[in-house]
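Supplementary notes for students who missed Thursday's class. We covered one full example, reproduced here. Read the sequence, then the structure, then the short commentary at the end.
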Amino acid sequence: MKSTITFAGALSRAPLIALAVFVPAMALFSGASSTPKAAPRPEATERHCVPVGGTVMTNFGVITPTSTLGTATGDLRGAVSASLLGPPEAGAGNTVIFRIQHHFVTETGDTIFIDPATATSVPIGPGLFAILSYPVHIKGGTGKFAGATGDFTNIGEVLLPNAPDTTGGTTVFRYTGQVCFGE
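Structure (token representation):
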């Protein structure tokens, strides 16, 4: 038996065929996308902050009797120098206050600018001081650190050189904090 398509049968299939062709065509040309749009980029004023940590180890008397020179490891790795901005001062409760200016150059050649810092310590032996409080503030720099800001704290020890000898003094610190970079 031979099947024949009647006019009525073809007419009832026409809407189904039209839907099968029309719906995908509309989806294709409608401009709708199944891919989500990218998030807007942050403005230039937004900052990206990262934790930093490492150690600093220096020797006194390398440059001048009241300055140190040494290495920084960890996130700020490179060279570090510190200069005493005056003689140590007596503080409250048997503490000793050191006022310091730091100089950092990272291993990639960037310079980190640092505000003058104050270290509060307590003597634990002849010429040996334990650091109780030693906050440091980053105020920019060059390269990666241009426009950067940040704060880190230090714990550690200072062994002052034996007077009148300006060698033999050392420092060892552990630093932790964060640095915020512009995007």
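Commentary. The chain is about 15% helix and 50% strand. The radius of gyration is 34 Å. If anything here is unclear, bring it to office hours.
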